[in-house]
Amino acid sequence: MKTFVLKNLDCANCALKIENHLKALPGVRAASIDFSTLSLLIDADDMDSVKNAIHRIEPEVKVEPKSEHAAQPLAAGNEINRTREVIVIVIAAIFTVAGFFFHRAFSGTPYHFWEYIVIFIAYGLSGKKVLTNAARTLFFGRMFDENVLMTIATLGAIAIHNLPEAASVMVFYTIGDLLQRLALQQSRKSIASLIALRPDFATIMEKGALRRTDPEAVKIGQTILVKPGERVPLDGVISCGTAFIDVSAITGEHAPISVAVNNAVRAGSINMSGELCIRVTALFSQSSLSKILELTQNAVHKKARTEQFITAFARIYTPAMVGMAVLVAAIPPLFVPGAHFAVWFHRALVLLVISCPCAFVISIPLGYFGGIGAASKRGILVKGANVFDDLVKCTTVVFDKTGTLTQGTLRVTGVVPYNGFEAKRIVEIAALAQAHSHHPVARSIVRHYGKHITPTMWEEFAELPGMGIVARNSDSKIVVGNDRLLHREGISHDRCEFDSTIVHVAVNSHYIGYITIGDQLKDGAKEALELLRRSGVQSLHMVTGDNLPAAQAVARVLGIENVHAQLLPEDKLAVLETLFPTGKGQKLAFVGDGINDAPVIARADIGIAMGDSGADAAIETADIVIMSGSPLKVAEAMAIARRTRAVVRQNIIVSFAVKGFFITLGIMGIATMWEAVFADMGVALWAIYNSTRVMKG
Hints:
Elements: E1 2-7, H1 12-23, E2 28-34, E3 39-44, H2 47-57, E4 62-65, H3 82-106, H4 113-139, H5 146-159, H6 163-195, E5 202-206, E6 209-213, E7 223-226, E8 236-240, E9 243-246, H7 248-251, E10 257-259, E11 264-265, E12 270-271, E13 276-280, H8 288-299, H9 305-335, H10 341-354, H11 358-377, E14 380-382, H12 385-392, E15 394-400, E16 411-417, H13 423-434, H14 440-449, E17 460-464, E18 468-472, E19 477-481, H15 483-489, E20 501-507, E21 510-518, H16 525-534, E22 539-543, H17 548-558, E23 562-564, H18 569-579, E24 587-592, H19 598-603, E25 606-610, H20 616-621, E26 624-626, H21 632-668, H22 673-696
Helix pairs in contact: 1-2, 3-4, 3-6, 4-5, 4-6, 5-6, 5-10, 6-11, 6-22, 9-10, 9-11, 10-21, 10-22, 11-21, 11-22, 12-21, 13-14, 16-21, 21-22
């Protein structure tokens, strides 16, 4: 799938037509256009044929490759020449007023031709773009868009000698169209400002000299200098300097954090104090910031069910309205005594004006993208608009324990020796056996040991998921792990249950003692669970590979009643299968961070990964990534989803209600054509404004 920018695309209904046409092209496997961001996501064999197809539909639209610089798709709309367009509208309005005057003054006199002259000048000035687009639409065999409808309505008014009304409707439509494009452009800029975080340069330190370059040109291992006030351009590790950095753009947490030598820093953070030397650990394309930009910009193409419904509805709405207009114009004069064709034809023209579906087509995706942008601003990466719909329906949340509800920075809190062994020797044996493991428990023991460990010549080394490690050489066999591993190896021990995490150690099948591992709850974990309960989550669960007493101790503090302990990775998946809610439309979310959580995250209706320390596999699989790793962000994501859903529903209800009201007035002969224009454009403008409220939330 490749992303392209669509320039000079200023019509939501046109975007929908292009998308539908591209999907039907041979060689196009998938295509999605988001009018909010003016971006095209497509999987096609031949882009030249795609560009030609777009050109046939909308000749002014240009298809350009997406640049990696800034949030280009978000800011790629037309640069509106406001002054020129306003001047044209003012001149057209002056001629329209003159047309009204001549209509009254010269009607029935030899000078009535002046009315035609000034009206056609006003009509041509204000309607040039509409008439051109309508002609092109009809030329390519497509019947229904707002340009065709406006052209038919206004030419119909001219045909029944309502010339001033035809010109005034076109002027009002042009004013509304300009206001709508300006509002939409401002909305795009507001959204773009939330995620336009890409630094313009990186300062490389080479042989004592400094050189500025594009962040994409920096290689892994090079050292960059970041001065106070500058944004960190790439992920790396601090090699010299100390500073406070603002990570709110990445994690949504606004409190500055202190960093020093050997601390990792992420691209997108802002250096607030001292100079920092940073050794680059990832290319720009692999950095945290790049992933945020990519995920956020592509998220809009995973359309919510509401968007899909509106897309399908728009295909039948306009033709249905045209059909209704034809019936309104034809039926009463044929079957109602005293009904005049001109009167009912005028009412039919009003229906054509109000039948444009742009308010629907614009407001729904813009509302969802506002939600995606608001979440991104708070360090919550939502990978699709469809995720918001599922979050609103979420009634069951399952949490992993270590690294999700607890900090995951485990530490040794005690050593209990057996059979004459010393505590130091037990730690040493465990550290030597686990030196190459990346499991948090193993790393905590190695850190506690504190000495340099040379590569151990184990003849056999096996890390058993959910159990521990078995290492073997010619002299000894070391077993380091949990109670399940001891039973598997047939090692005798006198106690199985503990209220904390325990690592048992055995040498040559003889039990020599155990190490207790402590962890701390994450800040806000308890509050997060309470907020979830208030938001409508009915069932909270915790799953862990830890022993049951240790898991229950954490659950008691958090108030979680449903605990599933001593689970292997495949056990977590099996447990999850039993927890899916049975209610219609109810959804389950799983929150985890480890690589062994990736299958469970993928299976859940909503997979949520902790991005601060989470494994890449879990992050790639997840529907939502919490960059700060705070459990509170899970509740915040649900709040944003509800707010987004509410705004989208408001847009739909108001659009339907206003259009339905004016359709009724039009059929009754109460609403005029220019009132219909106000209603149509007014609804679109209100929907755009309402959608931006999600971002400000």
